[in-house]
Amino acid sequence: MALDPLSDVLSLLRPRGYVSAGLNAGGDWALRFPGHEGIKFNAVTRGACWLFVDGDEAPVRIEEGDGFLLTKGRPFTLATDLSLPPIDARGIYAEAKDGIATWKGGGDVFLIGSRFVFADRHADLLFGTLPPVVHVRETSDNASVLRWAIHQITAELRRQQPGGQLVAEHLAHIMLVQVLRLHLTSHAQTSPGWLSALTDRQLSVAVSAMHAEPASRWTVEELARRAGMSRSTFALKFKQVVGTSPLDYLTRWRMLVAGDRLRNSDETIAVIATSLGYDSESAFSTAFKRVMACSPRQYQRAPHPG
């Protein structure tokens, strides 16, 4: 069965999830977290605190049951009292026992977190259009799956059963997908980019078609027909929502698929070029260099990120 576009991109990026220790904090406190690779998701399962991300204008109140996705890797502060001087959180987490870091005796606020790093350098395809903080409120519609995953991860951290780390990592992937779904449901019109197109009934058909058959000789006319729109209306709406033209999006998607296969298969450049709809290796190489800023052979030989 063909993957949907979101699954396509996540599979291509090969996210690796790491579940960090839970935080059990008591009293008033402020903890400073350093910048990080990839993205982080945290959820408060008891109590409440403030989140302040470097570069943002105002702190965000995180209530019990809320979660937040940090997409830009910036340093941040969690606190019950933002007037307190923050303590470096790394020292507290280094003393974690049985998967739980305890601060000031614990009991008031409990937080769990996970971090995702990506095997592909082009994670900005997915996260580049998202705000630095994606705040998921406990009252969000359709948040039940997310709450279930959060509670299951909390249980895995506390029980320390055999295989618990692997279970927690898979649950973290469920949380990531669910957070993206909830963000799209509530912010589709204010967060332009290809993700927003997935919530549009007509544009999503066109995006899914390009992902399912990247080698096809798509034209704007044919994509518009699939979407049930006139050519001009489709082209204008696609540019407004996604931020690029349909055929530019198709080219970028082809190059991302090509990059993955250059790194992770034994296929030759000529075979990859043909399989993605190019009549010649030179035409493919020209398009690849325009999008990826290096030749296919340079990309293939470069050190893998992560």
TrEMBL record:
**SUPFAM superfamilies membership:** Homeodomain-like, Regulatory protein AraC
Q: Give the SMART domains listed for this entry.
A: HTH_ARAC
- Entry keyword Cell membrane: no
UniProt xrefs under PROSITE patterns: HTH_ARAC_FAMILY_2
The GO terms describing molecular function are: DNA-binding transcription factor activity; sequence-specific DNA binding
Q: InterPro entries this protein is in?
A: AraC_lig, AraC_XylS_family_regulators, Homeodomain-like_sf, HTH-like, HTH_AraC
What keywords tag this UniProt record?
Answer: DNA-binding, Transcription, Transcription regulation
HTH araC/xylS-type domain location: 204-302
| Protein name, entry field | AraC family transcriptional regulator
Q: Which organism was this protein described from? A: Chondromyces crocatus
Upper lineage ranks? Bacteria, Pseudomonadati, Myxococcota, Polyangia, Polyangiales
Instruction: Please state the gene responsible for encoding this protein.
Output: araC
